[in-house]
Amino acid sequence: MDEQAHQDEHRQLGKTGILPDLPHGRVMPVRASKLSDVPEKLPPWRLVVQISGTSHTTLGLEVTERILVGRSDPGMERQPELDLTDYGGAENGVSRRHAEIVFIDNSLYVTDLSSTNGTKLNGFLLPPDQSFRLRDGDELELGQMKLMIRFLRPPF
């Protein structure tokens, strides 16, 4: 979905009363209805994650069925695919298992995994263990660490 269609969709939702119009062009995150489906195949694109703060780092990340976001810990069975340890994760309040990005029905959803310092999507605090749609250009805030999420699609 292109940016104009994305804005039109949210503008229409605001007019119907389902989602309120919010100041400064911010739109409340859309909660997922279910996340039980397994994708038939993963999309041929990547995520580009721009980390704000002192590191100002940009990372590329393959889209997989589930992407754990957090900090590494040798004692953990599963290490995060998006490991923020080297980018000030601990200092900025990122939990070891902070959030998860899940690919369902050709869309990405983010879920806070009951993190200590919470997860915000475009400025809105996400309730734990509930999934919300992630869109190109969204800003995630994990504790005090801000991440800009971009979808990188190959030319067709």
Could you describe the 3D structure shown?
- This protein is mainly beta and 156 residues long.
- The protein folds into 2 domains: 1-30; 36-152, Tumour Suppressor Smad4 (Sandwich), CATH 2.60.200.20.
- It contains 1 helix and 11 strands.
- A 6-stranded antiparallel sheet has the order 2-1-11-10-7-8, with no helix packed on it.
- Strand 1 and strand 2 form a beta hairpin.
- The longest helix is centred in the first third of the chain and has 14 residues, at 3-16.
- The protein starts with a helix and ends with a strand.
- The model is unreliable at 9-26 (pLDDT under 50).
Q: How do the strands and helices of this protein lay out in sequence?
A:
Elements: H1 3-16, E1 46-51, E2 57-62, E3 66-70, E4 82-83, E5 99-104, E6 107-112, E7 119-121, E8 124-125, E9 131-134, E10 139-142, E11 145-152
Parallel strand pairs: 3-4
Antiparallel strand pairs: 1-2, 1-11, 3-5, 5-6, 6-9, 7-8, 7-10, 10-11
CATH architecture classification name of the largest domain: Sandwich
Helix content: under 10%
Gross morphology is: globular
| Neighbour order of strands in the largest sheet | 2-1-11-10-7-8
Mean pLDDT: 79
Strand content: 25-35%
The poorly predicted ranges are 9-26
Characterize the biggest β-sheet.
Answer: 6 strands, antiparallel
Distance, first to last CA: 15 Å
Q: Please state the structural category.
A: mainly beta
Rg, please?
A: 16 Å
